[in-house]
Amino acid sequence: MAVTITKPQINVREKLKELDFETVPFQKMPSGSVIQVVSTIDSGSVSASANVVVDTGLTLSITPTSSSNKILILVSQQWSVTRTSDNLFLDFRLTRNGSIIYGPSRDSRFTTTDSFGIIEFTGKESINYLDAPSTTNSVEYKVQSEFFGSGGTGYWNQSVDGASATSTITLMEIAG
Q1: What is the CATH number of domain 37-174?
Q2: Domain limits of the chain?
Q3: What is the reported pLDDT for 152?
């Protein structure tokens, strides 16, 4: 007895046209690939006297697609300070869901001695930090700062004369 088997005809060209080569599922992305990016710009001004921790206005959340992925945090924070005494510091820190994960950093220290009264400083703080939150729940990142010492005022997202400045925070999910 002979059995006849017929193969279905598949038009390979038609099947290839059905594929979306511009979209790769995030589960198939190789390690190190950028899965998603969220970013925000803040120009709302914040000011405080010395020895107070303040939220600088840069806050952003992201929901990782896998608990093995990492989050690359990129911050560009505009700041300015007026000071009337020596040995003042401006610290920055980064928090994840309220817990400090970076800092405080003593990047900005004002130690000049003078007798000319108020001195003004303006600058930009940059933070690049790779975090491993190990979750698929929403994660909130926040930039905080503290201007401490005595005599002076710290300003975030504005210059000492009140002109608005812009700061940014970007979160990138990186495949683990």
Answers
A1: 2.60.120
A2: 37-174
A3: 76
Token output for 118 = 């108020």
**The pair of three-digit structure tokens given for residue 92, joined into one six-digit string:** 């920055």
Among 23, 25, 28, 82, residue whose Cα is nearest residue 50: 82
Residue 19 DSSP symbol = S
Label residue 145 exposed, middle or buried (CB < 10 Å: 0-12, 13-18, 19+): buried
Q: How far is CA 131 from each of CA 94, 141, 155, 164, 172, rounded to the nearest angstrom?
A: 11, 10, 27, 30, 10
- Rg (the chain; Cα; Å): 25
Segment 78-121, tens digit of pLDDT: 988 877 666 667 788 999 999 999 987 655 554 444 555 566 77
pLDDT digits (tens, 9 = 90+) for 16-49: 666 665 666 777 778 899 999 999 999 888 888 7
| Closest to 62 in 3D by CA, of 174, 166, 176, 167 | 174
What is the length of the chain?
176
Rounded (10°) CA dihedral 172, 68, 105, 82: 30
Those residues whose C-beta lies under 8 Å from the C-beta of residue 17, and which sit 6 or more positions away, are none
Please give the structure tokens belonging to residue 55: 């939220």
Distance between CA atoms of 167 and 98, rounded to whole angstroms? 20
Contact 65, 173 (CB under 8 A): yes
